[in-house]
UniProtKB/TrEMBL annotation, chains A, B:
Record keywords: DNA-binding
DNA-binding region boundaries: 33-52
Signal peptide: none
PROSITE patterns attached to this UniProt entry: HTH_TETR_2
SUPFAM superfamilies recorded: Homeodomain-like, Tetracyclin repressor-like, C-terminal domain
GO molecular function: DNA-binding transcription factor activity; transcription cis-regulatory region binding
Taxonomic source organism: Thioclava pacifica DSM 10166
Keyword DNA-binding: yes
Stretches of the chain forming a coiled coil according to its record: none
Protein name (Swiss-Prot/TrEMBL): TetR family transcriptional regulator
Domain HTH tetR-type: 10-70
Amino acid sequence: MARKTGSHSEITGPKIRAEAQRLFARHGFAAVSMRQIAAAVGVQAGALYLYTPDKEALLFDLLKSHMDDLIAAWRAEAPEGADALARLERFVRFHIRFNLERAEVVFLSYMELRNLSEENFAKIEGLRKTYETELEEILKAGQAEGVFLIPDTKLATMAIIAMLTGVNTWFREGGRLSRAMVADIYWDMVRKAVGA
Amino acid sequence: MARKTGSHSEITGPKIRAEAQRLFARHGFAAVSMRQIAAAVGVQAGALYLYTPDKEALLFDLLKSHMDDLIAAWRAEAPEGADALARLERFVRFHIRFNLERAEVVFLSYMELRNLSEENFAKIEGLRKTYETELEEILKAGQAEGVFLIPDTKLATMAIIAMLTGVNTWFREGGRLSRAMVADIYWDMVRKAVGA
DNA sequence: TTTGATAATGAACGAGCGTTCAGTTAGCGT
DNA sequence: ACGCTAACTGAACGCTCGTTCATTATCAAA
């Protein structure tokens, strides 16, 4: 056997990315072999190298795409002219919703950064910083408007993001609370934390 | 060569645990080989098996000891008769301090849980739950006293712990803020978040 | 229908993995 | 000084790893 009937790169390519994401998230990057990914896709290991130069590039592509999506999605949704309080509320709800929708890759982008080369690590960190800055700008604006009372906007940024991302570690669909209720409760805590 | 001059299990044993902790934290459990650990200790790989039945047990021992230490340290430090606000402040400062002092194993206990067997995973999760309950009891007490205004004590517990543990991801010794200043700022945010 | 490009196979490469164990040396109580 | 035990070596076991490549089957355009 060689080429399979009905095989197309537009199908196999995304399939590889999807299976890699699923397996990396479930077992960890280092614990997943190229052969496992290939088996999940339904090809031999060698075929993966038509789609990625190496294993690390596969991980990097997943993380890079995710960060690009995250930033683009937020910028598309961020209320431009609104006051800081409204923008902060939007950010909180956006972050929880977006991250819960992509739990696998979010998990990956927190756990598997150290498996990237120094160069690729720096790229992802840069994008993360870009995203964090979006929140910090809101906090600074609120501080300037006099509606927030924040001792340190940098720390508040890190604290809020850690708090919101933490939802992914415990939230289970069909549990005691719906996503909307969780978002409401977290927004209440964040609003109070910034003194608004 | 066989036994080395000056070799003693009371020295080699802890050394293995220390090097394993360092390497696991730096490169990830799956990415570190028994030979690497042995080389860092200064023995051959086979010697490690005088101290651990297998690689996973090495990881489990590190995590188990850490969780035991964490819970014991908090119980030793928790103010028994105090009011909820004072107990919460103590918890916040304790958690930040204790976790910053043991950054490596804290990192491990968040990243490498999935490398444990189901059985060992459950044990660590149980200890984590025990620790979280200590915080939730404080929040419930404060709610009962009427000094806290918390929409959901379970969520508040998760939110606060995620927020506090997040300090480990960005804090660097000799940076803009000292540990004490960080603790002050986080306590301010937590206090506000619970409505006190 | 022919033909070149595309998509895949499957075997092979050298290296490293966790783990076991017979053998060897150092420490130490007698 | 002897002998027992604790500490460690070094080689070996069977696997799996990421990656390469000559080969082959299918697809799509001419």
